[in-house]
Amino acid sequence: MLDGLDVPIVLAPLAGGPSTPQLTAAVCEAGAFGFLAAGYLSPERLSGQLAELRALTVRPFGVNVFSPPAGPTDPHTYAPYVSSLQRWAAERELPVGEPAFSDDHYAEKIDLLTQEPVAVVSFTFGAPDPDVVRRLQAVGSEVWVTVTSPEEATIAAEVRADALVVQGVEAGGHRGSFEDDVAAPAYSLMSLLQLLADAETPLVAAGGIMSGLGIAAVLTAGARAAQLGTGFLLCPEAGTTAPHREAVLRRDAPTRLTRAFTGRTARGILNEFMVEHDAEAVAAYPEIHYVTQPLRQAAREAGDGSLINLWAGEGYQLARALSAGELTRVLAEEARLTPG
User: Fold this and answer.
1) 1-68+103-237+323-340 is classed in which CATH architecture?
2) Is pTM, for the whole model, over 0.70?
């Protein structure tokens, strides 16, 4: 798939709202490769978005799937944090939900993608079992796996992934790590690319890439393509909410890694909720995601960016409010003109 790209740019999945069939189609039509995010969608909704996307473009595209957690988190791990959130929300008359476990309809989505094949199925939060890889490859799909360490890259190569999405700690949104381990090293993108330079599996670089200069840098470091997500948040085709767009456009706050919103490490623009809850947040995904989901939905509807997850990568200040097709073409031209 990477050999057939007109430009070495991949649109990141952007689960949770920004991903739309219109955004994916526009990037694909500009000669790059776009992903549609399956995360948080029901199988029925995913099928509908696939049909919509196929009506917008005949070019190849991919679908990203969340690998399922190993099992529910021990309630003792997250009970104190949930109690704190409940007290805090009650004082402000804000809604919160109950902890819940879900595998995000993993098996049903794999079944759907074997029945309605796409060019690439990528995985985040873990490598798929070898039988899943074989099923997808048997219907003509490549399998890409997001990795954040050399150890994860080895596991992905062992299940015969067709490409590794090498994600540095600079990336916005959730870390794609197989386990959300506090003690695990967090590699920057360029360090990780160098550590994987001898990998036989093709590499796609992800994390903080916001310009043609960044694209050129990761291609020089051995990547076959650059994956960008934050850079597309301001495109009109993206489903980015109004308060999220406003936060990106203000460009006045740093990003920070946090577990406060979902119980899984993710990078977002610093806001009130992160400041208030970072210190007590725990690793408990997806349980904490379901606790804060009603609160975040209410805040989005009210246009309140202080209480929602403003996922963005380092360097988000460089995001440009261009159409997705134009942005793709501009980035490709910038990369082409970069010396060296």
Assistant:
1) Alpha-Beta Barrel (3.20)
2) yes
